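Margin note from the TA: students keep mixing up input and output lines. Inputs are the sequences; the output is the structure of the whole complex. Example:
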Amino acid sequence: MSILINRRSRVLVQGITGHEGSFHTQQMYAYGTNIVAGVTPGKGGEWVLDGKVPVFDSVKIAAEATGADVSVIFVPARFAPDAIFEAADAGIQLIFCITEGIPIQDMMRVRRYLDQKQVRLVGPNCPGALTPGECKVGIIPGNIALPGNVGVVSRSGTLTYEVLYALKLKGIGVSTCVGIGGDPIQGTDFIDVLSLFEADPYTEAIVLIGEIGGNNEERAAEYISRHVTKPVVGFIAGRSAPPGKRMGHAGAIIEGRAGTAEHKINALEAAGVRIAEHPEQVAELIEPYLGK
Amino acid sequence: MNLHEYQSKQIFARFGIPIPRGKVALNSTEAKHIAEELGGKVVIKAQVLVGGRGKAGGIRLARSPEEAEELATFILGMDIKGLPVRKILVDEAVNIERELYVGITNDRNARCPVMMASAEGGVDIEEIARRSPEKIVKVYIDPLIGLRDYQSRDIAVAIDLPREYWKTFMSIAEGLWRVYTTHDATLVEINPLVITADKRMLALDGKMSVDDNALFRHPDLVEMRDLDVEAPAEVEARKYGLSYIKLDGEIGCMVNGAGLAMATMDIIKLHGGEPANFLDIGGGAGADKVAAALRIILSDSRVKVVLINIFGGITRCDEVARGILGALSEVRPQVPMVVRLVGTNAEEGRKMLADAHMITAETLVEAARKAVAVSKGELGYEHLD
């Protein structure tokens, strides 16, 4: 089973006719995701995926016509904040923003607005989520994960794929994998996802994949020590990263003495989290916790 | 992207923040003329994008235009922390009565901007934060509402500013807030904000950092970028949309995805090697981008081996292989390559590279071990079948 998304999710794609949007809509559809609508302003009335998915001019019209309850955003960074506002105002309560490179001040305004509306945003700059065997929203390759009982939450994209693949090679399945993204201002953080996994009866153990920058991992460690009863295995990227340099992700930077991998690893280990030395080792560490 | 002091202060002035009279000079003759215009006594300030200019001798007081000329010659010949001084700011010298600090930055945890102020200006704010955090006043600003007057007034009270300066301070705080929002800054800072002997408030120094992701809507700021602070390979990488950071090791890395790129560097280190760089080719990179990435990695003469780790998702491994082959025919590298391709079209990619004399690996651990072995001369082409 799963958190956030499942086979009943009715998914709407914002930017469905764009380069990224159309490619990943095909991939999501092929995986079995229930794609009910797409939005591209100015292309309302068209159909995509061989006439299977209708395109609308606005999220509001699309949601009213199709009952969409999840949106995934593939529009370019300069238009993405508007797309998030639009989805929230149209009553969509779960929004995944895949787009990378949104200005941080835009995201601060978006996040503030969404907090007042009780809307959940995942991302931006994230790979989305995957509930193996049921639904994929975003860009995580579906074939690298098996259905199962490990919840995976991560700040990274391809690093997560590496871990999913390592789990699959050991025959270990995943309840849901959620990529929360590598930006400094996120819609959903580790704690939000940890609390969902803790409450999900089908998740037996949790994998947390973090990286340098900010203190999301440290706060997660504090939350784990107080509220998480399920075993957690972690991996933190960036032990070899130099301070003061942004390592690709907007949020991955060691500033002053804060945000180092070492600090995060110490905090998580103190909270009882077992830390893998490399991504492939995550599968070895989690295996003993799983009832067969 | 960071702006120079003179650039920041020029922007501040446009938003009503008082700054000392002054001009930028490129040579000592110009510096002398500016000093004459300003009435003799001036401060010569090196314009380089590093902290600690003062300690390094890059900020000096000149009592006459002749002394200004002399000091300008000296400072323009300096290297500060490896950066050449190409410009100096010649500012009027003022008599300082008090030094304060005020700045705005993004607070990641509070997810909103925070205005910080201190009655102790003129020193590194991080130093104050470490030594006596209670001396820093913080006010969180609602990004949807903006800075309110009462918040600036609260700060003025908290840093013991005499009442006669409240109005000026509030207008400076408001100006700073407008600079921050209209320029998509991640940091705006006046340090020190001074009260002069003749009762004026002046932004004596200024600092601004701008969000790189927002530069698309600030073409004027893009033109202000100082390329001296970046390694030439980093500038080249940005042209291709690659994220590249040069490091000191011998193992060049080409990876898709920032997290995986960091993890690849980490595992190299774990096995006793030293990464030469961080390089993320991004998602869905085509052959051109891959070829550019390889050229950039190989432009570092210390690189003894290149580790290519691609986990295909949006990125297709056959496309990466095409890029590698393209670059190989062009640069003819003398260094061995260790390649690991997994995921989308990995099989096709591997087939394309089969005749290219590369060391292959199935897992990340195996790839790292092999790359480290090559960098230490323990493994070479002779070990290939």
